[in-house]
């Protein structure tokens, strides 16, 4: 799919991975006229102490990313539309909507759903650089969802899927745990009591817009650590700290500690930091740059 949009690149030594292809703010545009926020504030959370290292495993370097999407559960088309436009801003992914036989999935069940879709011919088995994304609708409970995770990525076991295929899962948290998984469009009680206000979602739905940000988070990590043996910090590959984990909660200049950062706000008061397909706007978190040794991303102060 030809993209006229500029790509946000994750710059790692000897490696350039296209993670998102939505367009950030036009160069030279000031969103707030703040003379104290400019290029010098482009990076947040800079540190020479973060020990992100390459562990010799493969990365997904195809541009655009070869992405295969599976919609699981009963999806409202109005919820799907913004997510589809976000994904089409990245790639031109084939997608499938198989019959949902259960509303409760374990982590292994996620692999089984993907394996069944491939076996049925709904999606191809692309073991040479492809990536898979399973999106669960409201009402589908996934192991650890809302309690410990909002999404995760891993790889399929050949014994289940016949191939080792990198995949990510993300769930829709609206109506279930938006205060956990749709930050900064919904806030947990302890934050709202402190006077912090939730941001207005760019597409009018906290669950959907929060899901988009989690998708961006997981796809960036899926691209740079698909088999959990490439780029991560820490010594435990079963619990790696990856490039999006290092910048959790940072969406603009000054972000961190419960403050999303300085982001663009449209005439309706909706917050965003990237443009996408069909005139859509999205708010996605920043990512760790090994080159800058800091969190980087689209900046309202540019």
Automatic annotation (TrEMBL):
Main location per the UniProt record = secreted
InterPro entries associated with the record: EXORDIUM-like
Q: Where in the cell is it found?
A: Secreted, Extracellular space, Apoplast
Q: Where is the signal peptide?
A: 1-21
Gene Ontology cellular component terms for the protein in this record = apoplast
State if Signal is listed as a keyword.
yes
Q: Which UniProt keywords apply?
A: Apoplast, Secreted, Signal
The record's comment on protein family reads:
Belongs to the EXORDIUM family.
> What protein is this chain from?
Protein EXORDIUM-like 5
Naturally occurring in which organism (per UniProt): Urochloa decumbens
